[in-house]
Specification:
It contains five helices and eight strands; from the N terminus they run ββαααβββαβαββ. The chain has 186 residues and is an alpha+beta fold. It has one domain: 3-Layer(aba) Sandwich (Aminopeptidase).
């Protein structure tokens, strides 16, 4: 996959040469993102996290195998692309299920401007039209009001709750699930 574009918004793979932008945006947003970020349970907490370069290699490997598609969210500012977040279509399953889930994060300086919703819509369209998925989920913490708004504005419907669903901020956290189904796939 090269990139997905919607006016000034571009979704494309994060590359080795993006390290300085990645490091800067992650450092500025450490406190903003930490309540929502996945963490490792005690079972594998001693396993080292990959370096930036190791992460890019892993993301490319997963994309090539069509298990997960992780893309930077970029916007055009002054003729340059600026990294403002990341979005992933992960857990891709074909066969009888034909489903996946979307996760994302956004730079706080660019939040509440519609970029995340646009990115979700763009990646959902790709999942439905190019991968011909039947169902895509967004799982989020119930107290994350901003993510609820993104899911709803992107046309996802609340399906229900998942108790102790994902390890976030050091513990197993409840999530709520929003779903969108592809009306074309029967």
């Amino acid at each position: 996959m090269k990139k997905l574009v919607d006016a000034d918004l571009t979704l494309m793979p994060i590359r080795f040469r993006d390290k300085s932008q990645w490091d800067a945006v992650r450092a500025i947003n450490r406190d903003w993102l930490s309540p929502w970020e996945a963490t490792r349970p005690n079972v594998d907490s001693n396993a080292p996290l990959p370096s930036y370069y190791g992460m890019v290699v892993q993301l490319n490997r997963e994309m090539k195998a069509l298990r997960s598609i992780s893309l930077g969210i970029w916007i055009k500012e002054n003729q340059s692309l600026v990294l403002i977040g990341q979005i992933t279509l992960g857990g891709i399953i074909f066969g009888a299920m034909r489903g996946a889930h979307i996760g994302y994060w956004i730079d706080q300086r660019y939040s509440n401007r519609g970029y995340t919703t646009r990115a979700v819509k763009l990646l959902t369209k790709f999942g439905f039209e190019q991968l011909r998925l039947h169902r895509i989920e967004i799982n989020l913490r119930p107290e994350n009001e901003a993510s609820k708004k993104v899911a709803l504005k992107a046309g996802y419907l609340l399906e229900g709750a998942r108790n102790n669903y994902l390890h976030i901020a050091g513990d197993w956290r409840d999530h709520i699930t929003f779903v969108k189904e592809n009306p074309v796939i029967k």
